[in-house]
Each structure stands twice: as C-alpha cells, then as structure tokens.
TrEMBL record:
The keyword Transmembrane applies. This is Cellobiose ABC transporter membrane protein. Residues 107-323 form the ABC transmembrane type-1 domain. It holds the Pfam family BPD_transp_1. It comes from the Bacteria. InterPro entries: ABC_transporter_permease, MetI-like, MetI-like_sf. Its main location: membrane. The chain crosses the membrane at residues 49-72, 106-129, 141-165, 246-266, 307-327.
C-alpha cells in the first residue's frame, strides 16, 4: 500500500476537480432554491390580495354596480312602460330639492321618528347593559332574553303592535280610557303615529344595542373600578367617569348604525300602516324610504325614484358625519 508522503521530485499532488455533472447539479440546486425564495416572496406579497379579491368582486357586482347604475337611471326620464327615454340631467334632483313638498314632508317624518326612536333606544340599552353587567340572579337568562325581540319576525311584531295600537279595540286605548282619557287614533295624528312606530323600533332594537354595550363593558379592566371604589367613588360616579368614557368608541358605533337605520326606516311604518306606502291618509308617517318606494314602484317612475335613493344616500352620509363630529366634540370636552 502506498502511503501519502511528500511528493518526490517530478511528482505533484493535484486537488481533484469536480466533474461537469457535479457542477451542473449544484447550479440546478442553487437555481431551484432561488426560485423557491422568489415564489415565497411573491406569495407573501400577493396572496393577501388574492384572499380578499372575492369580497371585492362580489362588492363590485352587487354593491358598486347597482349604486352607479342607479345614478345613471336618476339622470333619465325612466318609466316602466316607456323604458329609458330622454336624458334629463339634474332635472329630477332640481324638482326633488326645490319643488317637491312631499319629499320634505317625508324627510321631516323620518327625522322626527329617528329622534323619538334613537335617543330612548340607546339610553335604555345603556342602562340595561349596566344592570346586566352586575352580579344579579338569573343574569344569563336575562342576557339571552333581551335579544328575543331582535330575532322575532318584523311581520309578527307588526301584528302584535297593530293589536296594541288599534283604535277601537286596542289594549293601549283600553288603558287610556280606564284613566278617563279619550281613545287615540294612532294612525291619524303625526305625533301619535310617530310614537307608535318609534315604540315598535325601540322594542326590536334595544336588546341588540344592549348586548353590544354589555360586551364593551366586560372588556373594561376591573382594576379601574376597584381603584375607584377604594378612593370612595360611588357606583354612579364610576358609571359616569369610567364606564361612559371607556364606551365612547362603542357609543359612536351604535349612534352611526342607528342613524343609518333611522334614515332607512321602512318596514315598521309600512307594516304599521297595513302595507300602505303613503304613510296614512295625509302621509303623517311616510318616511323617505317609503316615498322612494312609492315613486319607483308605485308610480313606476324609476328615474325619479333613483334620484330619491341618491338623496337618501347623501343624507345618511351627512348625518353620520354630524354624529361623528358631535361625539368627538364630547370626547374632547371630557
């Protein structure tokens, strides 16, 4: 056996060179590793857009396109029988804003019912949430019970309240007569019809807002209440100085959602009027959503109804911005 030793004169030791196959395989491994790195980077960069793309596709089809198409229809004299007729530009909007008194009557009714329904609704929901946040007996049962009106069918709710607010045999008029007052025709007067519709709305939505406030209250750290109790703060003072400031984002959310729902008030007044979109004999409780439906599908004037729909959209945005500014002003004052 030949041992490795110093080379003899004329003999050299050369390092074996890699073969051509070895160099090719290492280059292939380096190339495949580079492709994997690039694919990984591309996946991390573009896969989030791919995951959310179905939402935007559906939103464009069922959300954005109807809005743009409604705007296009509102610029035409478009009826069911005549179809698309002459391009009228902003004539529908000009008549709606400067000449149509029925629209302003519906807008006034909408704002009135919105105030009568939203303010008590959110206040009662806030108080109920604070009560359910305490250690009371059957707390779980009461927490589940408050959501029952929300999951109840609107048609069933309208039937029940239709019996309660009946003019001749309604339970509420029966109680009113017991105390010596004359019965009320709840569908004839503006204030009476507003009150009846607002009670229907409040009965359905108080429980929903209660659970939202309750979930937000349970996220408030208990250490704040314990420290306040050690300092001698009463329960009422803890509510106003700890609970309310910590709930401001949630209150803002419920105010905006209630504003959007109030400006789109439709089902309750329609069911209260027995399916009449005119909102009573003198349109005492006709909302702007009912007026839009009456113009578009009752009188079959799609162009004018689309203009009303766009005005409703603008009104909702304006009132939502006003609510945001109002809540922010209160937050800065606190």
């Amino acid at each position: 056996m030949r041992t490795t030793g110093p080379p003899t004169p004329g003999e050299t030791h050369e390092r074996p060179r890699p073969s051509h196959r070895t160099r090719t395989s290492s280059k292939a491994r380096d190339g495949s590793a580079g492709w994997r790195v690039r694919l990984t980077k591309a996946d991390m960069r573009y896969s989030p857009y791919l995951y959310v793309a179905p939402f935007f596709v559906l939103f464009a089809i069922f959300g954005l396109f109807p809005v743009i198409y409604t705007l296009w229809i509102s610029l035409h004299d478009w009826t069911l029988l005549g179809g698309q007729e002459a391009f009228v530009g902003l004539d529908n909007y000009a008549y709606l804003l400067f000449e149509d008194t029925r629209f302003y009557n519906a807008l006034f009714n909408t704002l009135g019912m919105f105030v009568l329904a939203t303010v008590p609704q959110l206040l009662i929901a806030l108080l109920l949430a604070d009560l359910l946040n305490r250690r009371i007996r059957f707390r779980g049962f009461f927490r589940v019970s408050v959501i029952f009106p929300y999951v109840t069918s609107v048609a069933a709710t309208a039937l029940v309240f239709g019996q309660l607010f009946g003019r001749d045999y309604g339970l509420i008029n029966y109680v009113i007569e017991l105390v010596g007052l004359p019965p009320v025709n709840w569908q004839s007067g503006r204030l009476a019809s507003w009150s009846a519709v607002s009670i229907m709305v409040d009965w359905r939505w108080i429980g929903y807002n209660t659970l939202i406030y309750l979930a937000a209250m349970q996220a408030i750290p208990k250490d704040l209440y314990e420290a306040a109790a050690i300092d001698g703060a009463s329960r009422m003072r803890q509510f106003w100085q700890i609970t309310i400031p910590m709930l401001q984002p949630t209150i803002l959310f419920t105010v905006i959602i209630s504003t959007i729902g109030g400006m789109q008030l439709f089902t309750e007044p329609v069911m209260f009027g027995g399916g009449d979109y005119d909102g009573g004999s003198q349109a005492e409780f006709q909302t702007i959503a009912m007026y839009m439906f009456s113009e578009a599908f009752g009188r079959q004037d799609y162009g004018y109804g689309s203009a009303v729909a766009w005005i409703i959209f603008v009104v909702i945005i304006l009132f939502s911005l006003i609510n945001v500014l109002f809540v922010q002003r209160i937050r800065s004052a606190v």
